[in-house]
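Case study 2.
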Amino acid sequence: MTDTNFSFTPENLFEEIVARGREQGVSDQAAYDDMVEEVIEAHRGVGEIHTDDETEDWEEQLRGRFEEYVSLLGEAQL
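Prediction:
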């Protein structure tokens, strides 16, 4: 039997968020939080993350990484 389920981790999603944030110029906490939700919902919308998956913890973890996100973007200040 072949496993066709995609496996996403908060780290995979964070890398995508950083890339998307660079493209969109996201540099404030509110926009970052919105982007976290958008990325998770985009994967859910195409069936890569199932609706019964526990994503609230992922959202909380990812939102808590804002300072790391800003650092990766090379911003000197929050």
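Confidence is low (pLDDT under 50) at residues 1-5.
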